[in-house]
Amino acid sequence: MTPSPVLRRFGSSLRTIHHPSRKVLSVTVYRPVISASASASASASPTTTTTTTTTTPQTRWSSHAPMGPASSQQTRKPVTISTLRNMYKKNEPIAMLTAHDFPSAFVADSAGMDMVLVGDSLAMVALGMNDTNAVTLDDMVLHCRSVTRAVRSAFVVGDLPMGSYEVSPQQAVQSSIRLVKEGHVQAVKLEGGVDFASTIKAVTTAGIPVVAHIGLTPQRQNALGGFRAQGKSVAGALKLLDDAYAVQEAGAFMVVLEAIPAEIAAIITKKLRIPTIGIGAGDGCSGQVLVQIDMTGNFEPGRHLPKFVKKYANVWEETKRGIEQYRTEVKNRQYPAKEHTYAIDEEHVAEFQRLVDEQSPKKRQE
Ligand code: KIV
Questions:
Q1: Among 46, 40, 158, which residue's Cα sits nearest to residue 99?
Q2: pLDDT averaged over the chain?
Q3: Cα of 118 from ligand 1 centre, angstroms
Q4: Alpha carbon nearest to ligand 1 atom 5, residue
Q5: Higher confidence at residue 341 or residue 360?
């Protein structure tokens, strides 16, 4: 490829190449040839370089500068579907957490999550909606893109929102393709068991890995009579087992079990040959998932939390404390202090002051 005039002039400015999820990039770098002759200095020779770097450290001169990873260190190998299968074979628990934007994904990945889920719970925890029904595929694509820009190692799954897959298997395939092509996720998740087996089959046949989700399926809360635990009767538990077998046979590589008794989840997990990921389903599952905002305590005290949530941190309190202190310091003129300002030579300030004082207000406006 011939370098553009801009590339010719500025040479190898393509130092930071950050692909959302793939870590090893083959990059064609145009190096300017420095010589005495003007025409020679404008030429560029392409070289193909393989690099394992995802980003270069950045100095943030502006509050709007990108937040990209602070370190170029690739600390973990990317988690692939084979990694997850191996963990399952070795009986190693799989840790999954939700993320809905760049910072929440960045911290989840940095903390060593095996999987990051861009769950449609973002409707409630990030978009302020009452339930997950109103979130659209466009919303999901936007949030998936933001998450996958941050994640360097974890395996990222994007949720198919209500209305994006129920109409037909073809609709599900089209929506899944959008999440992969535009959202850059590695797999999709959809709610449903026996009734969605043909849908799961169609999506997996298109080459997109599927995580199924059975038990309490929040998108169907109206049909379920609210956010209620499932599988509490023998008939209910048998229905869950049927659902689990159906999604496995349809090709799902993993299944989320939400809000079901631990004993039932453990029995179902033993019967399957794909990993189960529990949320409110006890410790007999192959792994666990939680909603990040819940487990980090990033909500106003007093909010109702599902029984299964364990609060591991108090992000709300700490954030509020900092913001209150900032407010106080702004009001007291304690912030910004000298160290938060840019330096300038005293003579420049004096000269500027002199010029300003010299000019009449009218002249200054001209
Ligand atoms: O939307 C979501 O976050 C989920 C998890 C709770 C499993 O589906």
A1: 158
A2: 84
A3: 8
A4: 119
A5: 341
Average of pLDDT values for 32-45?
35
Per the model's pLDDT, the better-predicted residue between 48 and 93 turns out to be 93
Catalytic residue among 258, 263, 318, 329: 258
- Which residue among 258, 277, 309 is best mutated to probe the pocket of ligand 1, counting the most ligand atoms within 8 A of its Cβ? 258
At which residue do the structure tokens 């404008």 appear? Answer: 42
- 326 in any annotated domain: no
* pLDDT value, residue 220: 84
258 is a catalytic site residue: yes
On whether residue 37 sits in a domain, the answer given is: yes
Task: Give the end of a domain, one of 280, 295, 310.
Answer: 295
pLDDT at 3 over 80: no
Residue 151 near residue 22, CB atoms below 8 Å: no
Q: How many whole angstroms separate alpha carbon 248 and alpha carbon 214? A: 12
In this prediction, residue 218 carries a pLDDT of 85
Mean pLDDT, range 327-331, rounded to an integer: 98
pTM of the model: 0.80
Atom 2, ligand 1: residue with shortest CA distance: 119
Sequence-distant (≥ 6) Cβ neighbours of residue 74 within 8 angstroms:
23, 52, 53, 54, 152, 153
Residues 265-282 pLDDT 10s: 999 999 999 999 999 999
CA 83 to CA 64: how far, in whole Å? Answer: 36
* Alpha-carbon distances, residue 60 vs 91, 158, 263, 285 (angstroms): 43, 30, 51, 43
> 20: CA distance to ligand 1 center in Å?
22
pLDDT score for 38: 36
Measure 291 CA to ligand 1 centroid, in angstroms: 7
* Structural domain boundaries, residue 125: 81-295
Which residue's alpha carbon is at the smallest distance from atom 4 of ligand 1? 119
Residue 62 lies in a domain: no
Give helix 234-250 / helix 197-205 axis angle, nearest 10°: 20
Question: Are residues 120 and 259 part of one domain?
Answer: yes
Q: Which residues line ligand 1 (CB under 6 A)?
A: 98, 117, 119-121, 159, 213, 256, 258, 279, 289, 291
